[in-house]
Amino acid sequence: MILKDLHKDWTIINSQYLHRRLNFDTYAKTLNCVAQIGALAEQHNHHPVFEVGWGYVEVRVWSHDVNAITQRDYRLAQAIDDLS
Question: Is 69 exposed, middle or buried (0-12, 13-18, 19+ CB in 10 A)?
């Protein structure tokens, strides 16, 4: 799996991590999304970094142990895409 296999909003930042911003029309929907991704991350045993604000969540995914993007990151990103 590679970047082009994911939702068009995923980007690679500094060759280090995958990034996607998801937008919502309420804060409650934003928090619900974070909770859903968090539960998914637990299932994958792979935990992204979130930035949360009113109406948006930014998700950053990378393999902390190797400080790079791996297939594990692409699989989690695809699972996040499947939620939306």
Answer: buried
**pLDDT tens digits along 6-46:** 999 999 999 999 999 999 999 999 999 999 999 999 999 99
Q: From 3.40.109.10, 3.40.50.2000, 3.30.1360.20, 3.30.1330.30, which CATH number describes the 3-83 domain?
A: 3.30.1360.20
The single-letter code of the amino acid at 16 is Q
For the chain, the average pLDDT equals 95
